[in-house]
Design a protein that fits this description.
Blueprint lengths: L3 H15 L6 H14 L10 H14 L4 E4 L4 E4 L14 H17 L4 H13 L27 H13 L1 E8 L5 E14 L2 E8 L4 E6 L3 E10 L4 H6 L11 E8 L3 H7 L7 E3 L2 E7 L1 H10 L4 E5 L1 H16 L6
Helix pairs in contact: 1-2, 1-3, 2-3, 4-5, 9-10
Length: 328
């Protein structure tokens, strides 16, 4: 078996390949230096392309890695995504800590049975590593409270998750919230958590276009035998500024008073939002996101622009006023 230092380097290359990063030799060398920083060592600049070539050769010859060098793009590619790096995982202390903390966070966000699978996988990795440096209270003192509830049907979540993970086409029955349930075939390209709910961005074969689906509104789901190729255009379309499929209000301005300034700075609705001189300025945001936020500020956030936002806010306030019991 290769020495521990090389095993750690091989594991990092395998990780890059398995996540479809298609690393160049220069990228792999950067990762080697990152490993040294994780180990708490100073970078000695001892790594070269020759080191990378030797490690790639070990992966290919000793671990049967189906790796190919793309001369046109000057990057390494994994030919079979099902290949596994079957070797004990010798992790650095900082990598172990990051792994355990990351799994703890994931357990707080993912529903069962995914939560149990994450915990079991991490426990398996920890078996072969020294965890004596962990304080007994360290994990119990890190509290993660998810901002969303459990899915109404964990079986549906699991089916959707597996279809996304394995690039399988998915048959779903979707509640359109207008009294109907439509049957669709979709390719789930992106899985994301937004507005306290799990969602997928998928290519919908019924609509012949990408669509966003809330998993809690999927009544049933079955992965099909057909697979699909991940579409980078669809994947890259899901950003902080484009998570919602709702229509957007542009050039939003809100007057802030008191604590609303603090809450505006802490709440990210757009990558280019600004808070300046008591004004909260957002390039674009959907009414479904900004109206609840304004109402939650208890009068310390007043919409100024655009007119559509002011009108929608006024209607909400009037509707709420009508719900109040008459004064005695």
């Amino acid at each position: 078996m290769p020495p521990r230092a090389q095993i750690i380097r091989l594991a990092r290359i395998a990780s890059l390949l398995k996540t479809n990063s298609c690393p160049s030799a220069e990228k792999i060398i950067e990762e080697y230096r990152e490993i040294e920083l994780e180990e708490g060592k100073s970078i000695k600049g001892k790594y070269s392309r020759r080191t990378v070539f030797r490690d790639i050769a070990v992966l290919r010859d000793e671990y049967n890695c189906p790796i190919k060098y793309n001369w046109g793009e000057k990057r390494y590619e994994l030919l079979d995504p099902k290949w596994e790096f079957n070797c004990p995982a010798y992790l650095t202390e900082s990598a172990l800590f990051a792994l355990v903390i990351g799994s703890h966070v994931a357990e707080g966000i993912f529903p069962n049975p995914m939560r149990a699978r994450i915990k079991n996988s991490v426990d398996e990795l920890l078996k072969g590593n020294d965890t004596a440096f962990f304080e007994k209270t360290i994990l119990s003192s890190l509290k993660i409270f998810a901002d969303g509830g459990e899915p109404e049907n964990s079986g549906v979540f699991t089916s959707v998750f597996e279809a996304w993970r394995t690039h399988r086409r998915l048959k779903i029955w979707y509640d359109d919230q207008h009294g109907g349930v439509s049957e669709r075939i979709v390719d789930p390209h992106v899985l994301f958590h937004h507005l306290r709910e799990w969602r997928i961005k998928a290519y919908c074969h019924l609509k012949k276009a990408p669509r966003t689906f809330v998993i809690n509104r999927i009544k049933n789901a079955y992965p099909l035998k057909e697979t699909f190729k991940p579409d980078k255009k669809i994947i890259n379309s899901v950003t902080q500024d484009n998570l919602s499929s709702f229509s957007k209000l542009r050039d939003v301005k809100i007057k802030l008073i008191g604590d609303a300034v603090k809450f505006a700075k802490a709440n990210r609705m757009h990558s280019k939002q600004r808070v300046k001189n008591g004004l909260f300025m957002i390039p674009e945001v959907s009414p479904e996101v900004i109206l609840p936020w304004i109402l939650a500020q208890g009068g310390e956030a007043v919409p100024l622009e655009p007119p559509e936002l002011i009108e929608a806010f006024s209607k909400k306030v009037q509707a709420l006023s009508g719900c109040l019991p008459p004064k005695q």
